[in-house]
Design brief:
Order of helices and strands: EHHHEEEEEEEHEHEHEHHHEHEHEH
Strand order of the largest sheet: 3-4-5-6-9-10-11-12-13-14
Mean pLDDT: 93
Bound molecules: S-adenosyl-L-homocysteine
CATH topology of the largest domain: TIM Barrel
CATH class of the largest domain: Alpha Beta
Structural class: alpha/beta
Low-confidence stretches: none
Largest sheet: 10 strands, mixed
Shape: globular
């Protein structure tokens, strides 16, 4: 079977090369072409003999997704819309700041978790992305952004990374590999809607990848009403898994809390959240809701709500940060560009 060569980790590629009669040491050279140079054509791998390049083409392909659209925000955030080989669309975002360039990657076509405020949920779920499709977003954006080096990767695009566990993990290992992209493991963040059993599994991988948990509400009742996944993994199980992650990795975990105007921003919400955080090596990242184009029934919080919530948590001794929405003029929140395209096509 001909497979995309970017679906293989280095160890797997060495084994596959061996099986088809290619010397395994060539895998490292090919890896460097694929990930350091970002080459998407075997014929450009100039230190590989021509005969071998042809043989590679018999066993493997390099599928480059088509960049359908790039939108640039006034704050220089860039949103990429990719068209995959089966015609599906995914999106990825490049987020520059003073000292960093963060690439936000998608892991699935659509999403099955249907969080009430998120445009991705309204897309429905189609399929998992292959490892090659996850990595191709990185390679294509790196080539097309004006900045020189990528400092961070966050799995916060469309989809639930821990619901595509194997492929997300493989792509992390390839990006981290010495012969791959060489991105530090602590420079990568996996964001999850709260799949407790997958968090426990992740804590046993021996990787210090950054973990972000999308919390958004601090009681089971409220959380279940906006994140259906909470019915399967209630807060007790989620917090237990997060504790295990903190112990195993010795890393501070981030809880994302999207401030939904008039919904989860009251004194009671802030008090419940501060109680939940007690004794956890964690920080809370507040994100004012980025109003989407897909007609979801939530409001942006007022300035007063944001300031109140932040200062309440600070007074309770919680490590809290406030992330201002980036690229709101180009629909840069999760799933918004794909949703916009679908609505324009008349099917959304
Ligand atoms: N499924 C994963 C990763 C993708 S979502 C997860 O749930 O974490 C990445 C983050 O963006 C999550 O915290 C999600 O809740 C948040 N998000 C989704 N839509 C948003 C919006 N319109 N405004 C602000 N944050 C949003």
């Amino acid at each position: 079977m001909i497979e995309d060569i970017r679906n293989y980790t280095l160890a797997e590629l060495e084994a596959r090369f061996k099986a088809v009669g290619i010397q395994p040491y060539r895998a490292r050279q090919v890896f460097e072409w694929l990930y350091k140079s970002g080459v998407e054509d075997f014929s450009l791998m100039s230190n590989i003999p021509r005969e071998l390049r042809e043989k590679l083409g018999e066993y493997f392909v390099i599928e480059a997704p088509k960049i359908e659209e790039i939108e640039t925000s006034t704050d220089l955030t860039q949103k990429f819309l990719f068209r995959l080989k089966d015609g599906s669309f995914i999106e990825s975002v490049s987020i520059p700041s003073k000292s960093r360039l963060t690439l936000c990657l998608s892991t699935q076509v659509g999403c099955r978790f249907a969080c009430a405020f998120c445009a991705s949920g309204s897309l429905g779920f189609k399929r998992n992305l292959e490892v090659s499709e996850i990595l191709a977003q990185f390679i294509a954006m790196r080539k097309n952004v004006p900045q020189e080096t990528v400092s961070n990767v966050v799995f916060m695009g469309v989809g639930e990374p821990l619901d595509n566990y194997e492929n997300t993990l493989k792509s992390i290992r390839i990006m981290n590999s010495e012969f791959g992209i060489r991105l530090g493991i602590r420079k990568m963040t996996v964001s999850t809607s709260g799949l407790a059993s997958a968090i426990e599994r992740l804590s046993k991988e021996g990787l210090q990848v950054e973990l972000s948990v999308s919390l958004h509400a601090a009681t089971d009742e409220k959380r279940s009403s906006i994140l259906p996944v909470n019915k399967r993994y209630p807060l007790k199980d989620l917090i237990k898994a997060v504790r295990a992650y903190i112990v195993a990795t010795k890393r501070k975990v981030t809880f994302e809390y999207v401030l939904l105007g008039g919904y989860n921003t009251t004194v009671e919400d802030a008090e419940n959240l501060s109680k939940l955080m007690r004794g956890l090596n964690a920080r809370v990242n507040l994100i004012p809701y980025n109003i989407s184009q897909s007609r979801l029934n939530f409001n942006q919080p007022t300035k007063l709500e944001v300031l109140f919530f932040k200062s309440y948590l600070t007074k309770k001794g919680i490590d809290v940060t406030l992330r201002m929405p980036r690229g709101s003029d180009i629909a840069a929140a999760c799933g918004q560009l794909v949703a916009k395209r679908r609505n324009a096509a008349g099917s959304g």
